[in-house]
From TrEMBL:
Keywords assigned by UniProt, alphabetized: Oxidoreductase
Gene from which the chain derives: yedY_2
Organism of this sequence: Cedecea lapagei
Enzyme class: oxidoreductase
GO molecular function, one term: oxidoreductase activity
Residues covered by the Oxidoreductase molybdopterin-binding domain: 99-242
EC number: 1.8.-.-
Classification via Gene3D superfamilies: Oxidoreductase, molybdopterin-binding domain
Protein name: Sulfoxide reductase catalytic subunit yedY
PANTHER family found in the cross-reference section: BLL0505 PROTEIN, PROTEIN-METHIONINE-SULFOXIDE REDUCTASE
Amino acid sequence: MSDKNEIIKEATQLINKQLTQEGRRRFLKQGLTLGGIAMLTGCDISDSATVESSLGKISRFNDRIQAWLFNGSQLAPVYPESMIDANFPFNAFYGEDEAPDINGDSYRLELAGLITDKRPWTLAQLHQMAQVSQVTRHICVEGWSAIGKWGGVPFALFLKGIGADLRAKYVSFKCADDYYTSIDMATALHPQTLIALTWDGKVLPRKYGYPMKLRIPTKLGYKNPKHIQVIEVTNRYPGGYWEDQGYNWFGGS
Ligand SMILES: Nc1nc2c(c(=O)[nH]1)N[C@H]1C(S)=C(S)[C@@H](COP(=O)(O)O)O[C@H]1N2
Ligand SMILES: [Mo]
């Protein structure tokens, strides 16, 4: 993970490369905000490619600040069962009828990248591991949040069991519906990050990610992949479906 000096060095380089003298003065006064970016960069605001690339660099820089601030042992809030939302929303980049319809018997979870034991997993094998459950709030950037209960296998135990390289930077997920996303290793190892096999005490319903999803209460909704088919441990930045369209990669909640 990046240390403080590396981040400060990177910030200095970014500021020197991208900002005019006036911009640099404003930066020192106001801090690096997205709102001020048009004034800060030396580029013409009508040159959208340059603006996009500056914003992209700042978003990637913010990822590193967030990763550095992330405390791997600080827990997301948990709630009493009485607060569970009866009408938990469905969300995906398509409608509810189009959610993948996966056969649990033939399903195999594939493993790739920096992992010692890459044998695929059946659903039954996942159910044989020790199960926990938690009631947490799911927050979607589209403007809703809801409390739900998910049960399954702590992801850290799974990663250790398969001999994943725990010093690798990223864990990435490919889903049955062409969705993909990725998380930092500190979040993967967080005690509340779960391979979720149940929702509200029932087999995980199709619309919520059957046969399994990753439930990460320290991250926004789009960082919680449903219908996972492949898990890869890697040092190469994997991006994500929404992240590659400009959503912030770290996506903490
Ligand atoms: N495979 C897959 N996972 C996904 C998505 C998706 O479209 N496909 N959408 C994400 C978004 S933006 C949200 S808010 C949550 C919604 O999860 P839910 O349907 O369980 O509420 O799933 C996330 N994971
Ligand atoms: Mo979302």
